[in-house]
Amino acid sequence: MNHSSTSNTIQKEWLILFSVWILATISTIVSLFFSEIIKLPVCVLCWYQRIAMYPLVLILPLALFPLDIRVLRYAGILVLFGWVTALFHVLLVGGYIPKNAQPCVQDIPCSETHLNVFGFLNMPMMSLLTFSIMGLLLFFVKNWKNHE
Amino acid sequence: MNKKTLFIGASIIIIVAFIAAVAIFQTDKANQNKNSAVDNINIIERANAPTKGSEDARVTIVEFFDPACETCEVFYPLVNDLIKRYPGKVKVMMRYAPFHEGSDQVVKLLAAANIQGQFWPALDILFTHQQRWTRHHVAQPHSARMLLKDLPMDNEQFIRDISSDKVIQSIIQDVKDGKTLKVRATPQFFVNGKPLINFGYTQLTELVEQAIAEAYKS
C-alpha cells in the first residue's frame, strides 16, 4: 500500500529535478529566441554557457522517468561549469576584469560586441542567476538524499 | 497529478509560449518595417554626408560602414557596381559607424578629407590597403593617415579639419542615428529608407531593383 503510494505521488526530489529541467528549457528557448529570432550576435562566452545549459534539457528528463538521482553527478558538473563561466562574464561586463582580457571580441566579423547593447548587459546576469538557482536546487536534492 | 502529465503539460506550455513569442515578434517587426520607411527617412540620410552617383537619382542606398570592417571592404566594389549598372538612377550615401577599436580616429580622417572633396579617393585607398592599417581588427589611425598623405589636399587645413567641430559633429550625428536605427553590425544598408533585413549581395541587389521599379514607375 505504502509502496504504491510513493509511485503515484510525486517525490520532492522528482519535483526539484523537474523544476531544474523547466529552468534549463526556458533558458534554452529564451537564448535561442534572442539569437535566432531577434538575431542578437552570440559571443564566445555566451556559447560556453550554452554548452553547459543545453544538454540539461535532454539529460534531466532521462532522470525523471524513472527518477534517477545519480543524474546529480552529470547535471551538477554542467551547472558548475556554466555558473563559473557566467560569473566570469558578469565580472567582465561589470568591468571588474580588465577589458583586454576579454575574449568577447570580433568572433562575428564586424559586429560591435563590446558596445553595450540592451541584451548584452542583461543576458550574463540572467544566466548567472539561472545557474545559481539550478545549483542550489541540485544541492538540496543531494542533501535530502544524504539525510534519508 | 501524475508525473507524465506534468512533464508533457509543461513541455507543451513552453513550446506554445515560444511559438507565440515568435509569431508576435514577427508580426511586430513586419508592421515596424512598413512604417519605418516613413518614420526613419529623416534620420537615415544626413545632409552633407558623402554621396556618389547622380544628384537626381531617385534611389538612395545609405550605407553605415566602418573603414576597418572587412565585409564593408568586400561590399565596396559591389556597391560601386550597382551605381554603374543603373546610371543616373542610384546613388550611395556613406555614414560612419566606427565599431572597431581605433576606427573613431580613422573616420575623422575621412570626414576631414570629405571637406576637401577627397572622401572617395581616401576611402578607395583605405579599403584597398585595409590590411596595412588594421591589425587583428584594431585600426591604426597613424598608419591610415600616412596612406592618405599623397592625396591632393591642403595639408594644414586637413590637420585643422580632423579635430574641427564640423567633423566631430558629423560623426556624432552618424553614431547617434545608427543607434536609433539599431545598426549593430557593418555594413548596414538602407535603400530609400527600407533596411536590408536578410544580409547578402543578392538581397541588396533585389532591394535596389525593387526601389528602382517603384521610383521609376511611370
Describe the protein in words.
Chain A has helices at residues 2-8, 12-37, 44-64, 71-94, 118-147. Chain A is mostly helical. In chain A, α3 runs antiparallel to α4. Chain A is globular. The relative contact order of chain A is 0.16. With 218 residues, chain B is α+β, with helices and mostly antiparallel strands. Helices cover 60% and strands 12% of the residues of chain B. Chain B is built from 9 helices and 7 strands. In chain B, β2, α2 (70-85) and β3 form a beta-alpha-beta unit. In chain B, α3 runs antiparallel to α4, α3 (103-115) crosses α7 (155-162) and α3 crosses α8. Chain B is globular, with a radius of gyration of 21 Å. Chain A binds chain B through residues 8, 10, 14, 18, 22, 25-26, 29, 33, 37-38, 40-41, 61, 64-65, 105-106, 108-112, 115, 117, and chain B through 1-4, 6-7, 10-11, 14, 17-18, 21-22, 25-26, 66, 69-72, 99-100, 137, 184-187.
Quick summary of this structure?
The complex is a heterodimer of chains A (148) and B (218). Chain A has 148 residues and is mostly helical.
Task: List key phrases describing it.
heterodimer, A: 148 residues, mainly alpha, 0% strand, disordered N terminus, B: 218 residues, alpha+beta, Glutaredoxin, 2 domains, five-stranded mixed sheet, two-stranded antiparallel ribbon, 7 strands, 60% helix
